[in-house]
């Protein structure tokens, strides 16, 4: 790590000590989740009562489902334009990174074919077998 431009230190290569770090705070993940939940509710999503990490927005024009796992978000919907709008407002508020189409999530492999969406755990099973060989 390099010192910020303009910082004068007594010794060369002197390190900076952070006084507070987002990931080091005990309540950081809870505060992040609370802030994200409030924001999603403000833009019309309803939190699922059976799975609190799932949010749904249903109107006459569209259906959107949003699933949160720590700091990863899966967004699914019936129209790309509505999903793009949600991504746009999330980016304005939180500076998100869109990783494009979902292919892996929590050990699940997701593939799209003409017949539909296929979900399997092939990679997860192969990883377990490789560990057992050692």
Features:
134 residues; alpha+beta; TATA-Binding Protein; 2 domains; four-stranded antiparallel β-sheet; three-stranded antiparallel β-sheet; 3 helices; 31% helix; 25% strand; extended
Write a structural description.
With 134 residues, the chain is of the alpha+beta class. The chain has two domains: 23-99, TATA-Binding Protein; 101-134, no CATH class. It has three helices and seven strands. The strands form two sheets. A four-stranded antiparallel beta sheet has the order 1-2-3-4, covered by helices on one side. A three-stranded antiparallel beta sheet has the order 5-6-7, covered by helices on one side. The chain is extended, with a radius of gyration of 21 Å. The two termini are 37 Å apart. The mean pLDDT is 85.
Rounded to the nearest angstrom, the radius of gyration is 21 Å
Uncertain regions spanning at least 5 consecutive residues: none
What quaternary form is this?
single chain
**SS-based class:** alpha+beta
Spatially, the strands of the biggest sheet line up as 1-2-3-4
The first-level CATH class of the largest domain is given as: Alpha Beta
Helix fraction, binned, reads 25-40%
pLDDT averaged residue by residue: 85
Order of helices and strands: HEEEEHEEEH
CATH architectural designation of the largest domain: 2-Layer Sandwich
Counting DSSP H or I runs of 4 or more residues, the number of helices is 3
The CATH topology of the largest domain comes to TATA-Binding Protein
The proportion of strand residues reads 15-25%
């Amino acid at each position: 790590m390099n010192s910020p431009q303009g910082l004068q230190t007594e010794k060369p290569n002197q390190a900076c000590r952070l006084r507070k770090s987002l990931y080091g705070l005990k309540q950081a993940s809870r505060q992040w989740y609370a802030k994200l939940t409030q924001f999603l509710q403000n833009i019309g999503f309803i939190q699922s009562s059976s799975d609190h990490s799932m949010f749904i927005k249903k109107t006459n024009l569209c259906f959107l489902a949003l699933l949160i796992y720590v700091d990863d978000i899966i967004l699914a919907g019936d129209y790309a334009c509505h999903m793009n709008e949600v991504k746009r407002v999330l980016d304005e508020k939180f500076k998100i990174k869109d990783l494009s189409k979902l292919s892996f999530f929590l050990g699940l492999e997701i593939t799209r074919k003409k017949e539909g969406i296929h979900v399997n755990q092939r990679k997860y099973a192969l990883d377990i077998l490789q560990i057992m060989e050692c």
